[in-house]
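testing teh design pipeline on a random one, pls ignore if ur not involved
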């Protein structure tokens, strides 16, 4: 057979892509197989022009590079349910400080991605003396014909999609995974690379139509607040805190006794969701402070820290508030020093402003962090806005043995046991903070908010956590993975209420502004205390609205997916969700427009 090693190369390459889909739990339909095979042929057919010995070494190198990129994508996908992107280059310097969590994503079976190198090497050794009796003309015919056929199989479906004006192709895409399914593995990475290069020369001007879309967000009412409605505001972001731990008992022990009790004197939102993506903790901060969505790749903090946002601290500052952020780690970690200053924080208290006491995980323990943050808040001019980012329950969930308090007999996953121990510890720190606020008379007349930033990363189907909590259906797994707690203690109120209405982190800033009678400007969320239903949108186009949950089918054009009734977990007709599908996609695109084109600054300049 002519070009034997090349046919074996194609077989091994496509097999690795199937293995990736198997490990990641992604779809691999026949059309996807054809698309990927076509792209592999397009990218490798040139090797047929080489001499047999040189071609064999080149194909071996290509297999190695393919395996390396695939396994890197797999590790990233296990944590973020997304693929690597050129946009993530700006985040590389931040990864070393959270590397312990990423090590948990590596599994022994992943070595199979490199098994093809051994197989191919054995094949090459077996045929080392075999010579292809192929003329130069035949090589050109095979190489050119393969490239042409592969290109045709790749381009024809795209051309049909473009002709039909399918939104994933003609509009700004809202999901990397939709591009992956529509373009294949190499098509996705090729387009991503081209977009990364193209962004260096991209025209960021805002069109009249885009400006009109953004201006619809602004109610055009004066942002005024009365002196009587200026409570001090304290917002605390709790690391990796899921709603599932609230009221949960393990071996008869309450995981969060203090937060359980807090429901008696605050508004508690059990159907509240995190909307973070690849930026995780920084995404949670960004969404909460700006009421915009995260990027589809990477973090706003590292890519667009200097852009203009109508952020919560800036609006409160304009209303007379002193504003400060507290985070007991390095000042420039995840570019917080630049971003915080840009969005209106007067002060940023970081690692050097806190005592050099016992660390838990990556930073100062939450007991000392939260109590010291109270002392720092006391130094602020009233009224003040204090934003605190806790860290003790950060993956990989390590806590000193002397602080372990739970009997976790019967649990097997060491990460889950560490998670429960750190969550229990943080709950104690929150209880200590609340007690100190009350003793210092800083509780009653203040607006205090506690919320979780994102899930634990331990919520996968058939995980020990999912099994323990009985999460099996799509809706149950979605809620386990996305629900985070939200507690709002209103000023001069000590009566608790559980509010079942749905909402997300994008609604926190509008809710705070609603309570203090400030009209939000360019924000996509809405108050959780008004009478309207909130549409809670997630980065890949899924959403929660009233009693329904929509999960898009990213293997198909936009608008396709499954609508579920959340109470029963049963699939219902798509018409129950159809009215919100395009609204959700449009909101994600408007958010991207505001962020990536720095549209608010350009609109502000046009008004001058």
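output:
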């Amino acid at each position: 057979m002519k070009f034997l090693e090349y046919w074996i190369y194609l077989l091994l390459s496509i097999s690795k892509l199937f293995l990736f889909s198997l490990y990641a739990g992604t779809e691999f339909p026949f059309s996807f197989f054809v698309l990927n095979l076509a792209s592999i042929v397009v990218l490798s057919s040139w090797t047929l022009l080489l001499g047999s010995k040189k071609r064999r070494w080149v194909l071996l190198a290509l297999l190695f590079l393919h395996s390396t990129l695939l396994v890197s994508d797999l590790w990233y996908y296990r944590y973020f349910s997304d693929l690597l992107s050129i946009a993530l280059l700006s985040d590389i310097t931040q990864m070393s400080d959270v590397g312990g969590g990423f090590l948990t994503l590596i599994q022994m079976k992943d070595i199979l991605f490199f098994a093809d190198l051994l197989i191919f090497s054995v094949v090459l050794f077996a045929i080392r003396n075999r010579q292809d009796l192929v003329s130069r003309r035949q090589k050109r015919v095979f190489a050119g014909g393969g490239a042409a056929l592969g290109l045709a199989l790749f381009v024809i479906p795209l051309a049909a999609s473009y002709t039909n004006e399918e939104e994933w192709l003609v509009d700004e895409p809202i999901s990397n995974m939709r591009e992956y399914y529509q373009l294949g593995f190499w098509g996705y990475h090729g387009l991503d690379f081209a977009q990364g290069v193209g962004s260096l020369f991209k025209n960021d001007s805002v069109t009249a139509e885009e400006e009109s879309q953004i201006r619809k967000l602004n109610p055009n009412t004066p942002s005024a607040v009365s002196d009587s409605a200026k409570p001090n505001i304290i917002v605390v972001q709790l690391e990796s805190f899921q709603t599932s731990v609230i009221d949960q008992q393990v071996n008869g022990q309450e995981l969060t006794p203090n937060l359980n009790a807090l429901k008696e004197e605050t508004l508690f939102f059990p159907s509240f969701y995190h909307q973070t993506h690849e930026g995780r903790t920084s995404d949670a901060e960004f969404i909460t402070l700006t009421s915009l969505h995260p990027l589809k790749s990477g973090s706003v903090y590292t890519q667009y820290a200097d852009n203009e946002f109508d952020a919560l601290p800036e609006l409160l500052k304009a209303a007379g508030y002193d504003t400060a952020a507290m985070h007991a780690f390095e000042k420039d970690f995840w570019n917080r020093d630049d971003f915080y200053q840009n969005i209106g924080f007067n002060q940023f208290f970081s690692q050097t402003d806190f005592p050099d006491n016992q660390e838990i995980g990556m930073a100062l323990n939450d007991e000392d962090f939260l109590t010291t943050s109270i002392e720092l808040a006391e130094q602020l001019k009233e009224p003040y806005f204090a934003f605190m980012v806790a860290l003790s329950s950060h993956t990989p969930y390590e806590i000193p043995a002397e602080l372990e308090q739970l009997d976790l007999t019967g649990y097997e996953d060491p990460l889950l046991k560490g998670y429960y121990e750190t969550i229990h510890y943080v709950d104690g720190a929150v209880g200590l903070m609340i007690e100190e606020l009350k003793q210092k008379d800083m509780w009653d007349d203040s607006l205090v908010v506690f919320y979780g930033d994102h899930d634990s990363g331990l919520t996968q189907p058939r995980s020990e956590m999912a099994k323990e909590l009985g999460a099996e259906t799509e809706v149950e797994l979605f809620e386990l993975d996305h629900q985070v707690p939200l507690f709002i203690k209103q000023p001069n109120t000590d009566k608790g209420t559980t509010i079942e209405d749905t909402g997300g982190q994008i609604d926190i800033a509008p809710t705070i502004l609603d309570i203090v009678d400030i009209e939000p400007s360019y924000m996509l969320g809405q108050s959780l205390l008004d009478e309207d239903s909130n549409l809670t949108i997630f980065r890949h186009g899924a959403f929660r609205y009233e009693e329904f949950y929509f999960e898009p089918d990213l293997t198909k054009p936009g608008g396709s997916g499954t609508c579920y009734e959340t109470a029963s977990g049963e699939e219902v007709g798509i018409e129950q969700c159809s009215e919100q599908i395009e609204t959700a996609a449009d909101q994600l695109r408007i958010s991207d427009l505001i962020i990536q084109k720095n549209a608010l600054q350009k609109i502000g300049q046009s008004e001058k």
